[in-house]
Amino acid sequence: MILGLRSITLLGFLLLAFSGGAFAEGISREQGDAIINELRQIRQLLGKQQRAEAAPAAPAPQERVRLKLGNDYSLGQGDAPLVMVEYTDYQCPYCNRFYTGAFPELKKQYIDTGKMRFITRDFPLDFHPHAMKAAQASRCAGEQGKFWQMKDALMTNSSQLNPELIAVLARDRGLDMAKFNGCMDGGKVAAGIKEGIAQATAIGITGTPSFVIGRVSEGYLDGFLVVGAQPFANFDALAKKLLLEKK
């Protein structure tokens, strides 16, 4: 059972009541002492639980992987010493957590300063009914030069996505809707997304968000696989470690 601050407070009152001698009728002092000891142990366990929940998530064990880069949508300088590839799903709440949590700080401290190039790739999960259409929409917007504007709109509205909203977001971005709809109805974009999913699966990616962070050599990214919406501190620690390593 997961108990919070109110439970700990209640346990505190009970401890004060029993320790102050306010034993219920029919309860001996020995029984009361036993209850007090048990309540103290519960309060200690709850305190540890709260501290653990408040602490940043520990980085998952990192596995080295190698993946081929191509004509991807990216932010940052092309010659940045580090490259980070993101695999995302527009309906994934953890992808949204990364986008609104760690990503702004990564952009400020690494991407905008020329230390890292950020590449985003689609990995729509089968159990998210609108994720594939959202991934297509971002790429179709990209054909009109508005990929990042559409990505931001989709991520901002990730919990409400449906075909109607996707169309509204496209219109609100000022897209040529005839071209956009033609792109959405064609099979080229969907085929490219599925090909990317197969390549990601081949290097061990099974969920979102997932990331590969490392250095590029001869068109390939050699780096570490990081899984989950890690806090900025974990990405920061890995990036600093990689920057210190020799090429």
Q: How would you concisely characterize the structure shown here?
A:
With 247 residues, this protein is of the alpha+beta class. The protein has ten helices and six strands, in the order ααβββααβαααααββα.
Please provide a written account of the structure.
The protein has 247 residues and is α+β, with helices and mostly antiparallel strands. It folds into two domains: 5-54; 63-244, Glutaredoxin. It has helices spanning 5-19, 29-54, 93-100, 102-111, 131-142, 147-156, 163-172, 177-185, 188-202, 232-244; strands spanning 63-68, 73-75, 82-88, 116-122, 210-217, 220-227. A six-stranded mixed sheet has the order 1-6-5-3-4-2, with helices on both faces. Strand 5 and strand 6 form a beta hairpin. Helix 5 (131-142) packs antiparallel against helix 6 and helix 5 (131-142) packs across helix 8.
Order of helix and strand elements from N to C terminus: HHEEEHHEHHHHHEEH
Helical amount: 40-55%
- Count, helices: 10
Q: Just name the CATH architecture of the largest domain.
A: 3-Layer(aba) Sandwich
Task: Round the mean pLDDT to the nearest integer and report it.
Answer: 85
Q: What is the makeup of the main sheet? A: 6 strands, mixed
Number of strands: 6
Cα Rg: 25 Å
Identify low-pLDDT runs: 1-11, 13-18, 48-58
> Order of strands in the sheet with the most strands?
1-6-5-3-4-2
Domain module tally = 2
Strand content: 15-25%
List keywords for this structure.
247 residues, alpha+beta, disordered N terminus
